[in-house]
Batch of 2 targets.
Target 1
Amino acid sequence: MIRKRIIVSGQVQGVGFRPFVYRLAHELKLVGWVKNSNLGVEIEVQGTVANVDAFRRNLYLKLPPLAKILKLRVEDRPVRPDLDFKIVLSEQANSHQVLISPDIATCSDCLRDLFDSGNRRYLYSFTNCTNCGPRYTITKSIPYDRKHTSMACFKMCAKCEQEYNDPLDRRFHAQPNCCPECGPKVWLTDSNGKQLGFEIQAIAKSVDLLLAGKILAIKGLGGFHLACAAWENDVVLRLRARKNRPNKSLAVMVPDLEIARQIALISEQEEKLLLSPARPIVILARKTDRLSFYLAPDTLTIGLVLPYTPLQHILFKFLREKTEFPVLVMTSGNASAEPICLGNREALNRLGNIADFFLLHDRDILIRCDDSVLAWNQSLNLPLFLRRARGYVPTPVPLSQKGPVVLGVGAHLKNTICLSKEDQAFVSQYIGTLSNLETYDFFEQTIEHFQKILAVKPEAICCDLHPDYLSTKFAQEQNLPLIKLQHHLAHLYAVLAENEINEPVLGWALDGTGLGLDNTIWGGELFWLDPVALKHKRIASFEPLPLPGGEQAIWEPWRIGVAILLSLQEDLNYPWPLNVPSAKQVKVIQTMLEQAINTPLCSSLGRIFDAVASLLGLITKVSYEGQAAILLEKIQAPTKVEPYLWKTEEKDGVFWIKTKFWFEQIITDLKKNVSPAVISRKFHLSVQRVLVELGLSQALKYGVKKLAFSGGVMQNLTLAAGLPKEISQKGLLPVFHHKMPPNDSSIAFGQVVYAQRFLLRSNS
């Protein structure tokens, strides 16, 4: 007989881990106990050597669906005269090593309860167990007990209490446990808050309204959705107009894979993503004309998500009974540029001019959390995150070493924040662009919330170099040691850390804009970077383009197109595809260029994409970030073509990729009436070739074997698929994001990685 003490840390509380341990111990005829503590879950097991060893193996092999073991510590203990195995009361402590689970889609067991007419939870919208349901968005602080969640105000009935206290029940210590007798309720109102129905009647009436062409605001897990019929052009256009979202794609929700396959091409890996407990929106190749064209006018893809809450499942049950094509727009419940709505009063106030009706409930959402958005990178056989939020947050990213607690406050666009705790980095859900008071409040709330649920206080703070970012200003106002990190270096520290790379590499940081170390605008940079020694060198960059009007040129790419034609001394009276608002405005641009008035130079690859799109006449003004590049990618010809030639010029130790040389070739093609589709394809191949070939030549020079990529340009699905193949063929190892988005949502993570290492080196 032997006795072992086992300390398990990770995502092991509130996920059915203790009852799993209890059942496993009984199966193996072991005695002892299990309890929650500030360390995670503590276990003492006693029995034969073979059975104790089998117990340790099965802790990993038979884990509950939501449990994640990060560390397992085993110690010998003296044998004791225990007679059985029991679950003992939890310890309370100020600090903890416990992870709160993300919000998880309704499990198959709860779905059976939901649609079993003999079950007491039949068609009940808040059915959950330890294997599914809300976690992060209903938790205000640790430990994860009911009294610290938004379920505290709902007293369990006798039957729910019995389930909650039974170690063999799958609802044992499920903090959101409830039923129709004791739990939250659903009701329907009009936009003035007038009640129109309760519970099942409210959901059934909501379906009738959706089929009648109405727009509904529906309260979900991490905030509100705006929903409407996805096949009706009129209602989709009405939603776009009210939401002030004229072009950006809208996601759709379908009840199951059968309907999903009618809409999109779905690979085996994409199917697994769709069905995963996180239930993200997955970007798929669109294949039907039954959907409204106006859902995604700029792309050939569709963002598709399956139901993940009981309420959504019930909604689609009624919808299927009334239509053979049950597909709903399910987009974030907000006006453009604002954060997703959280509470009932807030939604009625902020969405009253968008939604016709509101499907509400009284379980409070304590923290906003949008849907996650992913694509599948077939070349890498890994996910490509476009937005990381519900289903994944607050799961940490492991760090290579323990260090001080650091707060990274991120960038201006696609902001997230990040807090480190020992050897883990906790990156927040997507917050958004810090351009209005509502989003900035969300930013501050998220920082406060993360400190509560992680039970930490930052010892230092890291921000971007840009002095006008609100995140930078926030960092400067805190009474903490301040560390600043250049934007594109933060991108590269992020991609290397998530791939656990601790050796010198070459890395491309490719995006729209970021303040460079020389106070110019960067966005197309190749660095040599040593992430351990914290050393870097800028090796190559794209030849800067002029941005007439500064930031205005980002939203009006025609300005960049005109600047290119003028710089190449082309005749502006030639019938270029480029759409120019007026001759007067062209004259203004010409004056700005000649006198260098508000015309900063920018080495950004993102702006080069904008310029090509404008020259091809695809767009004059953009309504959302990246729109020009998305349109350019959409029109590519599928035919095999040769890329444009490229060349560099070395100056001050930096290789400058001659951007004008590309545009000279594009303009020659335009004069020859080569189609925009062929030009787009040639351009994409040219970008891919220069990134690989220049990267390879410098990798040989610097003696590195890995080529890393980060930045918003890596959301381009053509490059994300093509680059890894070509890099591998050249004998280098491609390094890409697969745990974090490549866009600015990874900046806070990179800041924390750098700052933690900086502090460790400073204190050593």
Target 2
Amino acid sequence: MWAATVAVVGALTALIAWSCWQRWQLLAGSPFPLGVDGYFYPIELRSLLAHGELQYPASPLAFYLLAPFAAITDPITGAKLGAAVIGAAIAVPAYGAGARLGGCRGAGLIAAVLATTSVGSAYLTIEFVKNSVGLTVALTALWLVLRAIDRPTRLAIAAATAGLAAAYATHKMAAALVLVVAIPAVLTAATAHRAGGARRVGIVIVGLAAIAIAVVAIGWVFPRRVLSVGDAQLIRGLWSQTPHWTAPALVSPAGELAIGHDALLGLALGLVALSAQRVRRLATRPAVRARVTAATRVAAGAWNPVARRFRRAAAHAPRGAAAGDPAVAGAAATRPADDAPDAAAAAPAIVPAPLAITAAGWPIVVLAIAIGLPFLAVTDRQGLGFRLRLAAFVPAALTAAIVARDLLGRCARRDRVLAALAVVLAVARQPGDRLDGEVVTHPALVTAAQALNGQVPPGATLIVPERHIAFLVAWYTGAPVALRPEGVPRAHRFRLLPLHFIGAATPLDHQLMAARAEPSVPPPIGVHPRHPNGLVLVAEPTWDWILAQLPAADRAYFAAWPTI
């Protein structure tokens, strides 16, 4: 046992180090932050280190986890380094949860490799760091919950509760993922034993009700920081009437982005898990069991290993042992097969997973299938469907552990077989030197943002139509920024227009040039080093004058202030 433990620890250490190095190579390709919200994380870390609080409201724990890396380097480097380390560290909780769901170390290794080497995981490390950290914390919380269900000591229950709180404080998706899987598992565990079952169920229900009240109350007070009731409205935009049959892919304004095959893999594995469950249900029925046994003996013969395998599953599975269980494969019977040459060559004993593990497996399998469906809305970069498609590697990895138990539950060397497969997957699945859809900050844009220093009047708020540029400008100027003009007094509004918002040789482009010669309004200030309208600062009276000069269609479009 100690040798197996050492081997697993060594394998996970090597996997994390390798993945961390690869992620760092992607992040270090630019001296500037990467991603749509790239500058958001350094801004939050700078504020946290300097003032002890976040500049913008957000789930706080992710930034406290990144803060040590920023403290020993700087906010930009620290955000990148922390993202690489914590993103790669997902291998540990993925192994723990996968081993619990799959019933063996090999299944845990498969889950760890799939989660760590995923292109989606690498993409999150670059584009959505808080989401990446949140999934690592979420899998850790799920692992602690499964351990507490297996051995419900006070320490284990306290650790699981702390893990749930950590997921709740890290990211909204992380909190939702843990709750969806943990609540059915905890309720099932409470009813698993008849002795004291009613009292145990009552305690669990009261505890869950107290947690629900606390979650709703905190979410009502801090709706932008933690999971709240208002986030349920995101479900309305989860599905699209136009299917994207190129799954797994994301769709952005620039086109379709291939992010690996995590969604398709999860869909396939989920269907395999459901099919294996259906076969086991049929195999446990007495009439079907007798017919299958006779048919396999006649049709395939006693020498056929496939027939022997199916016959053993049908003959030895206790009635109802696996009913309703997508996470448990095989039977509880431990006697050797009748055609094994000796007891040592017989398949290993399989202890049925607790019903709570079964209850945890169902939402994971369903989630893996749902994320892989082509009707998932994946066109909105800030939408729930887009984020779920990126996080497809999590349910896919855990479903792989479930399927490993389904298919290799009676294999005498299942851990070795799965470990070998994990090594092959680790070598074959690499994110590459660059990811599709990776948002890179152009040096000229950084120069333009730095040129705004001294140009922004005191007390002014910059209205910026794109998140990426808004956070970039906030980092270099320290000025307040907003995506929407509503809520900002007119006297304090200054529009900041990038070229892709203006459009080259458009009526807006021409009117910005004309406004520079109009004496009745403050002239627009261009700060981009390559184009006079590459990044333009426009006072609100000047913006009103420009809108009045535009054609009616353009005037209505820009007056609505479309944002990205």
